[in-house]
Structure formats: structure tokens, C-alpha cells
Specification:
single chain; 354 residues; mainly alpha; two-stranded antiparallel sheet; 12 helices; 2 strands; 66% helix
């Protein structure tokens, strides 16, 4: 457990202390956020707030993972390196998007086709590599089964289809996190809960791994303990960043951070064989994403009518007159309930089947 504590602690301290320096650096160079004119008018006061803070989150996670292994002199694992690689790779796409916004003084960054193409390349590379690197028992980081609380034996996919499924998950979660980011501290606090929940999942899978406790309820997962290190590093980094990102935010994570967080969700869900459980644990992100899907669909079907005042959902409540802090707090409560429900389902399945 020492490496888990080291990773979580360094992840937290990295953003808690490092973000202060990032704010000073970004402010001196005028790297501030541009605000959409068609959004809530209350957001105009945020114009010029430093953005690209996700760089600190990514750097803290990478530093935390490396430090936990170097200090205890333990080798890294394939699953953890792939998870951090996806987390970092998508963060770099977000960084390019944020940089274009800043350098061109506009609220729009990369063209949608370019952004999706870059996400697709990284997702495909991750999807292909996730089915490589079998361990001594032949277990690869990803499985060709669709999973809920564990692999569903009746939902086996041919390898090409399995890679497409993983790519879909990466695209879905990265964009879900991107849509959820928009109010001070909303995505950061919610992501911290999701990563902490998956830290618990990984710890349990590690203690009940088939290598140690063979039986019908054991978990055939590659590198569950090292994935705990990754999950807690991400949770700690988000929690530390929240100190500066909570309302009134001194810095935004930008697409740099939100795309990276979505990559973390996708990697952890795939590698823990709980792809559909993530829909429950990260339910808040699903709800917000569905509000956009419903808004667009209803707008087209009704020929110009809107289901919500504005999408994503958090902005609908802003236009209804809710205070930003109220929305964020209530959405955090929803996220906490979703995470608790997911953990309850996960543990109940093990107890019932034991």
C-alpha cells in the first residue's frame, strides 16, 4: 500500500503547490480564457482567467507514478503505462486546442475534424496496444469481452471489433469529461470521486486476484495493484487542483485537463473489466452528455425548438437563475451518489456470488 499512498500524496501536492506557479506563469504571459458570447452572461467575468491548468494535473500524475516506483524500486507495468499514455496523449490534444484558442484570441480551438482525428489516432493506438503484452498467465490489459462488473462471457468480440469498442469508449469518455467541464470545480471535483471509486475497485480486484485467491469469484485482471497507483494519483491530482479551481476559479483546466480525465476514465474501465459499470460510477458525466444529445436531437426533430434553455445541462440551470456554486454542489452530490451506487453494485455482485 505504500506506493499507493506515495502516488496519491505526490499527485495531490503536485497540483496543490504546482498550480500556484502555473497561475503566475500563465498570468504574466496573458494566457487567459476566452468566453463564448452566446453563453450565460455571468461567465463574462471569467474572461482572462488562466487556462491550460490541465498541464499541472497531467505532470503531477506522471510524477506521482514515477516517484512511487522509483522510491520503492518497483518496475512499471504495461497496464499502468498504457493508462497514463492515454491520459497524457489526450491531454496533449487538449493542449493544442487550448493553445489555438489563446494564440488566436477566440473561444474556438482546433477544427472539429482535426480534434476528432487526433483523438481517433490516439484511441486506435491505445486500443491496439491494450490487447498486447500478455502476462505469465496470458492475461492482456484489455479483454475481448464487453464487461459490466466483470467480463460478460456471452459478449465476446472478435479482435478488430474489440478494438473499435475500446476506441468508442475512449471517444465517449473524453468528450463526456469535456462537456462536463464548464463551471468552476465541477469536472475536477466529480473526476476526483470517480478516480477514488476506481481506486477502491482496483484494491479489491488486487486482493481477490485469481493469482492469489483462485476461485469462481476471483478477478482475472492484469496489474490491478499498479492500476490502483494510477487511479489514486489521478484522484489526488484532481483533489489538489480543486483548491485553485473551485469557485471563484483562479485557473481553468481547459481541454488539456478535461480530455485527459476522460482518457483516464476509459483506461480504468477497460483494464478493470468494468466498462459498463463506469456508466454508473461516472453517471453525472453521462447525464450531462445525454443532455447535449437530447438537445441536438430534439432541435432537429422539432424544427428549431429547444428541450433545455442551453446545453450542457449545467448551463440550463444557470439560465434558470441557479447560482453557480449551488449547481456545482448539487451535481457533486449526484456524482457521489452515482459513485456509491456503482461501488455497491460491484461489492454486492462479489458477495452474492461468493
Amino acid at each position: 500500500m505504500l506506493s499507493v499512498l506515495i502516488a496519491g500524496g505526490i499527485g495531490l501536492l503536485g497540483t496543490l503547490l504546482g498550480t500556484r506557479f502555473a497561475i503566475n506563469f500563465l498570468v504574466k504571459r496573458g494566457y487567459g480564457q476566452f468566453i463564448r458570447d452566446d453563453g450565460p452572461t455571468t461567465h463574462h467575468t471569467k474572461r482572462g482567467t488562466p487556462t491550460m491548468g490541465g498541464i499541472v494535473v497531467i505532470a503531477s500524475v506522471v510524477l506521482a507514478y514515477l516517484a512511487a516506483h522509483l522510491l520503492l524500486w518497483k518496475p512499471p507495468t504495461a497496464s499502468a503505462l498504457l493508462a497514463i499514455g492515454l491520459f497524457t496523449g489526450l491531454g496533449l490534444v487538449g493542449l493544442a486546442d487550448d493553445w489555438i484558442k489563446i494564440s488566436h484570441a477566440r473561444s474556438l480551438g482546433l477544427h472539429s475534424w482535426a480534434k476528432l482525428s487526433l483523438q481517433g489516432v490516439i484511441a486506435i493506438a491505445f486500443g491496439v496496444l491494450a490487447f498486447q503484452f500478455p502476462d505469465a498467465d496470458g492475461i492482456t490489459p484489455a479483454s475481448q469481452h464487453i464487461s459490466f462488473l466483470r467480463d460478460l462471457s456471452w459478449l465476446w468480440l472478435p479482435l478488430p471489433v474489440a478494438v473499435i469498442w475500446v476506441v468508442f469508449l475512449v471517444a465517449s469518455w473524453s468528450n463526456a469529461a469535456n462537456l462536463t467541464d464548464g463551471l468552476d470545480g465541477l469536472a475536477t471535483g466529480a473526476a476526483a470521486m470517480v478516480f477514488a471509486a476506481y481506486g477502491i475497485v482496483n484494491i479489491w480486484q488486487s486482493s481477490q486476484a485469481c493469482f492469489y485467491k483462485p476461485g469462481p469469484q476471483c478477478y482475472a485482471v492484469r496489474d490491478p495493484y499498479d492500476l490502483t497507483v494510477v487511479a489514486l494519483a489521478m484522484a489526488g491530482a484532481c483533489f489538489g487542483f480543486l483548491w485553485w479551481n473551485a469557485s471563484p476559479a483562479k485557473i481553468f483546466m481547459g481541454d488539456t485537463g478535461s480530455l485527459a480525465l476522460g482518457g483516464g476514465f476509459a483506461a480504468l474501465s477497460v483494464f478493470t473489466r468494468t466498462e459498463l459499470l463506469m456508466v454508473v460510477v461516472a453517471g453525472l458525466f453521462v447525464i450531462i452528455t445525454m443532455s447535449v444529445v437530447l438537445q441536438v436531437g430534439w432541435f432537429k426533430l422539432s424544427r428549431g425548438k429547444r428541450l433545455f434553455k442551453m446545453a450542457p445541462l449545467q448551463h440550463h440551470f444557470e439560465l434558470m437563475g441557479w447560482a453557480e456554486v449551488t449547481i456545482v454542489t448539487r451535481f457533486w452530490i449526484i456524482c457521489g451518489l452515482c459513485a456509491a451506487l456503482g461501488m455497491g453494485l460491484f461489492y454486492t455482485e462479489w458477495v452474492v456470488g461468493a
